[in-house]
Amino acid sequence: MKNLFKTATITTVMALSINVAHADEKIGFADPNYLLQNHPLMVELNAKVDSFMQETKEKFQPEENELTKEEESLIAERDKIDADASKLREEQTSVEKSLKKKVDALEKDAPRLRSKDIQARQKVINDESKAFQDKVEALQKREAEFSKKAEAFQIKVSDLQTKLAEEQEKANAMISREDQQKAVDDINNTIKSIADSKGYTLVLLPSAALYAKNESVDITEEILAEIKKHTPAKAQGK
């Protein structure tokens, strides 16, 4: 039951028009996904989610550990039953041959035997057959008991998965669409502000650049620094 928790990921689509650049245009580049992930508001919210998920993991760890031990025990028991069943199938072949041999011999000798001798030999046959049948029934009983244990185990696992899913929903709700949109709007506004102040006529995604002679045209970090300046201290985790 590994990977029971997954960090909530935030995705956004930022439409940045890519037009044919003219010689007099000044082009800059910015990574909106990087800016979103590192926006103080999102950093703060993701930290809260991480903390909540860690607490949840610690809360349910004992139950998960117990289920892991129970699963290992059930696997060992299942393997033992399978091994015993295999041995019993081999024994069945031997017993069937033995019984057939005794029955054939009794049928052949019966005309010359007294009634009590026939009954005695018949008892030997019946006892051997019953002894094997008792083994079969004992194995069937073990299999039935194992099935009940396995079913109870699956119910426990399902219950834990339900509880974990509920906690995951709580974690997902900790970052609302409104929070994400607020960060996206802030990023877009800051991009526009810096682009205007620096004279950029186009701001494109870094992936749109096949070659950039001047690394300064990537204004991602400059945008992030400006965002941090005007973001309230609380949102920066101070």
Account of the protein in words:
By secondary structure, the chain is an all-alpha fold. The chain has one domain. The protein has helices spanning 32-38, 40-109, 115-173, 177-198, 220-230; strands at 27-29, 202-204. A two-stranded parallel sheet has the order 1-2. Helix 1 runs parallel beside helix 5 (220-230), helix 2 runs antiparallel to helix 3 and helix 4 crosses helix 5. It is rod-shaped and about 120 Å long. The two termini are 36 Å apart. 8% of the residues are buried. The model is unreliable at 1-23 (pLDDT under 50). Belongs to the Skp family. This is Periplasmic chaperone for outer membrane proteins Skp. One of its GO terms (cellular component) is cytosol. GO terms for molecular function: unfolded protein binding.
Write out key terms for the chains shown.
238 residues; mainly alpha; two-stranded parallel ribbon; 5 helices; rod-shaped; disordered N terminus; Skp_dom_sf; unfolded protein binding; Periplasmic chaperone for outer membrane proteins Skp
Q: Helicity range of the residues?
A: over 70%
- Structural class of the helices, strands and pairings? mainly alpha
Q: Total helix count?
A: 5
Strand order of the largest sheet: 1-2
What's the alpha carbon Rg, rounded to whole Å? 37 Å
Low-pLDDT stretches: 1-23
Strand content: under 5%
End-to-end separation:
36 Å
Outline:
rod-shaped
Task: Please report the total strand number as a whole number.
Answer: 2
